[in-house]
Amino acid sequence: MLISAFILGLLGSFHCLGMCGPIAFMLPLDRTNAFKKASQITTYHLGRLLAYSIIGLVFGSIGKSLYIFGFQQQLSIITGFLMILIVLIPQRTFSKYNFSKPIYKLISKVKSALGHALKKKTSDTFLTIGFLNGFLPCGLVYMALFGAIAGGDILKGSFYMAAFGLGTLPLMTAAIYFSNFLKGTARQKIQKAIPVFVVLIGCLFVLRGLGLGIPYLSPTPILNSVSSAIECH
Asked: Which residues of 94-106 are buried (b: 16+ CB within 10 A; e: fewer)?
C-alpha cells in the first residue's frame, strides 16, 4: 500500500502543481549558490513531509480506533468505494459544495502565515513554508487521507502520508528548477491517468477489505485465521 501512496503522490503532483506550484516558484531561494539553493529546496520538502506525516498520525489514529472496534475490513471497503465514487461523480457536482468551509478560518490563518514566511529570507523559513504548505487543502491529499485511515494504525497512517509526500518530490523539485519542463499533450495525458490510478487504488482497498485469502493483495483477516486454528484443535 505504501507503493500505491508513492505513485498517487507522483501522478497527483501534476494536479498539485496548481496549488503548490505558485508557492514553489515564490520560494526566496539563493540563486547565486547552487549548493545552498539545493539545501533550501530540500528543507522546504522536509517541511512538507513533516506536515504530511503529522496529518497521517492524526488520521491513522482514527483508523486505529475503528480497527479496535473490529471495523478494519468494513473501513477498507468503504474507503475503496469512496475513492472510486469521488472519481466517478462529475467535478461540477463537487464544485457546488465547499468542503473546506468548516475549517475556512484555520486555512486563512495558514495562508496568512505562509505569506509572511515567503517574505523572509532566514535559513529556517524554508522549513516553515514547507510545513504550512502541507496543511493547505488539496483533493489528492484528501484521497491519501482515506488510505491513512484505512491502514488502521497510527504509524501506518503516518508512513502512508509520508510515502505520498515522497511521490510529489520529483515533480515539485523539477518545477522549481524548470518551470516549463513539461507542457502540452504529455501533461494532459498524465492528468487523465490520475483518476484511473485512483480507481485502481480504490479497488485494491476493496479487495483487501474482502479478505479473500490472497497473499499481500487480500489477506485473510487475523481474527478469522485465529478462529480457524482454534476450531482445528
From this structure: eeeeeeeeeeeee
Torsion 120-121-127-133 (CA) sign? positive
Q: pLDDT tens digits for 185-200? A: 656 666 677 777 778 8
The pLDDT tens digits of the residues spanning 47-57 come to 999 999 999 99
Which cell goes with 193?
A: 491517468
Q: What is the pTM of this model?
A: 0.75
What are the φ and ψ backbone dihedral angles of 108, each rounded to 5 degrees?
-60, -40
**Cβ–Cβ under 8 Å, residues 158 and 56:** yes
* 3-state DSSP of 176-189: HHCCCCCCCHHHHH
Chain CA centroid to CA 155, Å:
15
Q: Where are the domains of the chain?
A: 2-232
Distance CA 166, CA 56 (A): 13
Q: Dig out the grid coordinates for 229 from the structure.
A: 486454528
Question: Under 8 Å CB-to-CB from 164, ≥6 apart: which residues?
Answer: 5, 6, 8, 9, 12, 52, 141, 144, 147
Among the listed residues 82, 183, 125, the one whose alpha carbon sits nearest the alpha carbon of residue 74: 82
Q: What are the C-alpha distances in Å from 87 to residues 8, 190, 216? A: 14, 15, 25
